[in-house]
Each structure stands twice: as structure tokens, then as C-alpha cells.
Amino acid sequence: MKSEAQKADISFIVRYLLASPVFKNSYRGKFKSKIVSVDDRLITKVILRCQIAGLLEKELEAPDVLPELQKTISVDAIIDRLIYNEIALIQSVLPTSEQVVLLKGLAFWGDVYEHPRQRRVRDIDILVPSNEAIDRFCDCLKRIGYSTQGDLE
Asked: How much is the pTM?
């Protein structure tokens, strides 16, 4: 059970991670003292639930500050690489004349979010340019092992 002091510390840590650079410069020392004082498992659970592990990773100087979170970040890096590889595979089977657009999370990697772990992605959202292209696109995906569920409308 979290004490009121632990809740306040966690609240400060999350607020710090989401804050402006000016705030971070002013409160970096306080952040460092709070992050090492909070139970590793508890802060890891909160950081992962809030999906801000990438923001924390940027702030950590010592890799052993939160060992459990470091393990999770490593797993997330593997997932990110698998998603990149899947996108490359999908692009490789599409005819060069077919233009598709990545939407939502993936579309922001590298632009809005400096690092992929700042925006967790568990799926790939793709916009196909026309109804006529949908069947061709689905055929390409089926050739590499994807299947469809439900009606495509």
C-alpha cells in the first residue's frame, strides 16, 4: 500500500517527466533524489501504466537506477525493432505504384516523438488510398502470412 509520501513522490516524478525543459532544469536535483527513494517496482508500474518509459529513460544517467524498468525498456526496444522489420516487409511486397500511409502512433515516430518508446505502438494502422487498392493490398499481405477478419468495406 502506498503511503501519502510515496504518492506525492510518484506524482512529482510523473509531473517532472511530462514537464517543460525549464521546469526540468529547475527541479533536476529533486527528481534525482525522488527517483532513487521510490520503490523500483512501484515506480516501474506507474511509469509503464502511463506509457512514459521513454521519457524516464532519457532522464536516467545510471543504468542501474531502476533495474526492472531497464529490463522492460530492453524488451520494448525488441518490440520496436520487430515493428520496424514488419513495416519493411510490408513495403517490400507492395507494388511501387501503391502508396499507403502509416497512421497514428507509427506516423509520429521520429517527428513528434524523438524516440519510439515515447509513443508505444502495438499495432500498425495503414491507410490505403482507394477502394480499388484494398484488394491488391490485402493480396500482398496474404502472401506474407496475414489474414483478414470480417468484411472489408
From this structure: 0.49
